[in-house]
Inverse folding.
């Protein structure tokens, strides 16, 4: 079932009918999204996308700065009246994936906007245009955070280090980000508390003693020790942590080098991705994983080196801000288009760095084209993932409404 902004009420006192106004911008937003989709960039230096954003924001009377160590854009809209500031985030980078969607505007340069960041960027451009048109009604400022390097490069952290929180002159009181995903087009979903897992990289190297494959009793074989650790990691995740505060440890790489097949290797290395939902659980992983791996290795007379680094912390939505977010979206788009998720996602998101500093909400907007079967729609990061840019107007309207409503709330 699809949903269109034409059906949306706008009943928040003092908040414009942003869905109706965004509809008038829809064609231009779709054209910009497709231009960005055709020309994806990876990592921190998304300079062509940055230029498109700057061109799209020209004429809006924004206070704009660009990043030093990444191709970010921070654009500040100062309202006509004094008040606090809020952050709206849109990420800009793509993935190193060869696109297989068959779209007429598909990328052909070996990269792909397989996670919908092209929509996030353009939805934020739309929000800037909507809010700029209502500058005279705003009691405070809006910081538009156009961020590269979300896909594993920690772009949000770099933007914070470069002074994002000082962009409007005072510390923001709220931050919001919308992420598209597969599901019934036009439906928003979020939850208070943990929204996405933190993401860690685990490397365990078992140090044994090499030898001839025909004489294992004269060596100290690192391979079965590593295999035992792999199995123990699964029990560790399922038996040492509450099922309602889950941990995922997925071993994705096993390596003993490229020696001859009849040589028992000195070392065996395994690598895993680790996911956790709360800072307390992350702390327990830092303590428990080295004990587990080295304990097993020492039981066999070997030793294990353990390296664990959580690159992204858990994404935790502020409780009060998120309840207000759900209310605002229901008032703006209707009850049937806004859901409260019963569980977090185990994927990770570097908006978590912002939410560690500012109370806010990370939410999803379902964007599967109406003609596709929801049961088989490809998930984010698939080379065949397709998102309907018809949601851009509602994405822009939602961001604008959330910012405007939060500034209005601060007045009371």
């Amino acid at each position: 079932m699809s949903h269109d902004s034409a059906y949306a009420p706008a009943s928040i006192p003092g908040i414009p009918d942003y869905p109706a106004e965004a509809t008038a911008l829809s064609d231009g937003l779709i054209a910009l999204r497709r231009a960005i989709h055709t020309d994806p960039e990876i990592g921190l230096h998304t300079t062509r996308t940055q230029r498109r954003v700057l061109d799209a924001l020209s004429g809006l009377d924004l206070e704009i700065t660009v990043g030093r160590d990444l191709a970010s854009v921070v654009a500040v809209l100062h309202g006509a009246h004094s008040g606090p500031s809020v952050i709206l985030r849109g990420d800009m980078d793509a993935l190193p994936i060869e696109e297989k969607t068959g779209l007429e505007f598909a990328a052909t340069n070996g990269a792909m906007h397989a996670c919908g960041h092209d929509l996030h960027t353009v939805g934020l451009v739309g929000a800037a245009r909507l809010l700029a048109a209502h500058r005279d009604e705003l009691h405070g400022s809006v910081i538009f955070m156009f961020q590269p390097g979300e896909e594993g490069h920690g772009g949000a952290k770099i933007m914070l280090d470069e002074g994002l929180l000082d962009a409007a002159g005072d510390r923001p009181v709220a931050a919001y980000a919308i992420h598209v995903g597969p599901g019934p087009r036009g439906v928003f979903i979020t939850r208070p508390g943990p929204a996405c897992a933190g993401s860690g990289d685990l490397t365990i190297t078992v140090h044994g003693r090499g030898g001839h494959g025909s004489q294992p009793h004269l060596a100290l074989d690192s391979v079965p020790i590593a295999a035992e650790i792999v199995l123990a990691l699964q029990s560790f995740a399922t038996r040492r942590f509450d099922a309602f505060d889950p941990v995922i440890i997925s071993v994705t790489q096993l390596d003993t080098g490229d020696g001859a097949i009849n040589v028992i290797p000195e070392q065996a290395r395994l690598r895993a991705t680790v996911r956790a939902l709360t800072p307390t659980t992350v702390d327990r992983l830092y303590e428990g994983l080295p004990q587990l791996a080295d304990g097993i290795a020492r039981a066999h007379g070997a030793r294990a080196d353990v390296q664990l680094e959580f690159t992204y912390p858990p994404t935790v939505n502020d409780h009060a801000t998120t309840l207000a977010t759900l209310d605002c979206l229901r008032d703006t788009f209707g009850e049937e288009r806004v859901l409260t998720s019963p569980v977090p996602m185990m994927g990770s998101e570097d908006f978590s760095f912002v939410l560690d500093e500012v109370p806010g909400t990370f939410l999803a907007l379902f964007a599967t084209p109406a003609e596709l079967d929801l049961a088989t729609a490809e998930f984010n990061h698939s080379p065949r993932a397709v998102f309907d840019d018809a949601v851009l107007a509602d994405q822009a309207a939602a961001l604008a409404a959330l910012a405007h409503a939060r500034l209005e709330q601060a007045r009371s």
Summary: Residues 225 and 287 are 20 Å apart (CA to CA). Residues 198-312 form a domain with the Alpha-Beta Plaits fold (CATH 3.30.70.360).
